[in-house]
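Q: Sequence in, structure out?
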Amino acid sequence: MIATITQQDAATELVANYLSTIKNQGFSGDTDASYATRLTASTDNSIYQQIPQGVIFPKTEKDIQLALQTASRDPFLSLTFGPRGGGTGTNGQSLTPGIVVDLSRYMREILEINVEEGWVRVQTGVIKDQLNDFLKPYGFFFSPDLSTSNRATIGGMISTDASGQGSLVYGKTSNHVLGLTTYLVDGTPMVTSPIDIQKAKVIAEQDSLIGSLYKTVLDISITQRDAILEKFPRLNRFLTGYDLEHVLSDDLQTFDMSRLITGSEGSLGIVTEAKLNLTPIAEFKTLINIKYDSFDSALRHSPFLVDARATSVETVDSKVLNLAREDIIWHSVSDLIADVPNKDMQGLNMVEFNAVSPDDIKDKVNTLCTLLDECVANQTNGVIGYQLTNDKSDILKIYAMRKKSVGLLGNVKGSQKPLAFAEDTAVPPENLADYIVEFRALLDSHNLQYGMFGHVDAGVLHVRPALDMCDPEQEKLLRTISDDVVKLTAKYGGLMWGEHGKGYRSEYGPEFFGEHLFNQLRKIKTAFDPNNRINPGKICTPIQSEDSLVSVDSQKRSYFDKQISIDVKTSFNNAMTCNGNGICFNYDENSPMCPSYKVTGDRKHSPKGRATLMREWLRLQESKNVDLLEVEKELNKGEVITWWERFVHSREKNKGVYDFSHEVKESMDECLACKACTTSCPIKVDVPTFRARFLNYYHSYYARPLKDYLVGNIETSAPLMSKFARVINPVVKTNLVSGLIKKTVGYVDTPQLSIPSLDKRVAKAHKFNFELLDSLSGEEQNNYVLIVQDPFTSFYEAELVQSFITLITALGKKPMLLPFKPNGKAQHVKGFLHEFKVTAKNAAEFLNKLSDINAPLVGLDASLVMCYRDEYNTILESNRGDFHVQLAHEWLQTQSFKSLSAKKKQDTEFTLLSHCTETTALPKAASVWKTIFTDIGLTLNTTNTGCCGMAGTYGHEAQNQENSRTLYEMSWKPIVDKNKPDQLLSTGFSCRSQVKRFEQFKPKHPIELLAQVLS
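A: Exactly. Output:
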């Protein structure tokens, strides 16, 4: 059996006392010292892991001030703090052994916009894409770009002076900061903006903390200016640290402390507000995708493209392109980056032009295209072809692919994974090609695989060598490569940390700056944070401090992972491979991933959070000498501990006895099992699968709630209940019975069984007859369509199955309804894996018997059909067989509708809301429905939505009611409200049920409408 896991690495008594103290003094945000929350904050998008002592989530600036002021008094003077935004940094900037100050949960307000003056004021927890969505109606955007824009915060961008695509034109974050509000280590607020240097000198004479800061910074920036100008590289990128060069304007007449704080990686204070300048949106865009015979050709051609006065020039190599081809995202760009016949595309440059009027780019584009035509014709510069698009939606699709490719690199097979540690080097663009030749030679000398992409116009290339950090020798190699890259970038006039900040590479600061100039940085740190309490170890330490800088040799995630046996790591690969890219934190409410995180705002409830907790749970179980795989084999055979033992363990749980398993369970309970993570995550983290396995373990030790048995046995009980629907339906609707079910089982809004039942709706000719099918020729069998039943449509929406039979008939085919066979999806969701295996085995045996029949198997519910494809493969492995069940739209797209037309006049347009499982697993589904409707003369509009909040039985569980409704109101309700009931269509049973309970009408499935207008 599994083991009880006692409190791990508990927060100190001092931290617990501190968190209690600030709450008692009026801290309005959240404080959390639970192991699960601290684990979730222990990683970012880097290779490092540092478990903090606690996490606070301030709601206001007063919260931050209170937290810092309290920590400035005994007995809390030893506490340290680390500000955190989106946690998307690739070098550990937001990791701390102290207390994390997470601004991303609550401090996300856009406070003020001044269109006339072109600025906006925001809290620093605002997400970059959130800000741009707000600005778009005004015709502006915040222009520094980055691949993590849908989850990176403004505070994080300020911390690392972030920039990305288009930086030659749009610059870095620091070029757009007009002012900051920063809370210093003692809680003192400091508001900064560009001021006349004489005014700065007056402030410097004041007898105050801020006065002393101005005095120190003015003195160093003026007296050391020659040394600063000589050492700071002439690059489009900033080296992160303390920007002593740009604190002063070129004419030395303006002083701006904000420039010092921007890029300081949170080591000088906690930035809470930012005033940012705005850039007008260029309405006219052209993107030219230039294809090359080699990556070297693409790099060497880039200066020519920069000279063409492009807004940006992005590049990717063949490895990144090939990974994108294997991902769900490729379907959206395959026709925009088509292969060149008889040519091998090994590199791609994406050249963007944009302007406020078409005339501003027309000549530039035409000139470049003429030159590219010559390159193709003459076979020069390695150019083998190009494609041009002016469609902004297509351009966004291409950039979405480019952004996702960053994460896709982490999805390569094997234990060696491309890692971010030397992947944002910057050199002068004219040196880039030669530099990359040497960089590749360095990696090739160690026989390493790697992918390359980046901003060639700025001389920044992202290179991620593949290493296995659980291999001690390869971990040493990371140090060797890091040292060599530092030397190599210096040779070519650049630096190692050209875009993503120093973080754990801070140890290279003294060597880069030299002792004298580095000591000036240490003086700055001393003035702001003399006791090294704000993000200690990053950038530099105070002058008198004996504390060390963080190092590339610091503790990594692999320190924990290597304690897990190889067999267990391999078995739980769908959790172990999470690399922290954080795309599951996507702020977009219309994005399917991840609904539980979107609604709670708690990162424990994200795929990344759950993967982190699962990894730690595996490690701790093995540390207790539990053979997890052997235990699982026993459980899946039906061998479990006695009910008495589970009762005793559950009694201990109810008494409050700690077990880390409870924290993991709480995280898993919020999962809707929608499976969006399995396709939307570039690493393909699969929470529903490892969640089911965890629940299987957990409930072998602790008793299950009654509702689990109700849900797990729905496929057994539904056929029986349907026989008595006329009695059961009115009884279940009564307040007495529904209240009793809610109180005893924890289940609400029980759906009504179909009346009449499916069995009474289906003519005898359409019922299953194996002997008839078996007697037919292959050609005659092909005229049949075998309908695979599921418990939801068969027993709760029999009218849909009936409509499908009508539609099949209208298409000239013969429908045949297969007998109901439980699928087991509900059992899998609740972790009844032994029972699920039995169910899957029985269903697979039946469906495999039909695989020799030359007739398609078609199901109506996406989640159950996908279960045949995914979960059956996992649980049955080689015994699954080769049967294939299609979803209705997959079969319908093979049929001809062009000869048909709607027989009933339809004057309205229709809007389709898709099932989230279907959207993520089969992204072309909506376009298939749209084509069918067009073929018969109807108009179908499709729209992007997130999860409806029902997700199978999730929305029926009493504990989930608030979250279920909130999710519905996020993205579904606004669209529902814009459409009349008879205009709205939806493909998901749970989605239709959700609309019905909140809006008192049930949308039709597209099949129902098609059957209605074609019959």
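The mean pLDDT is 92.
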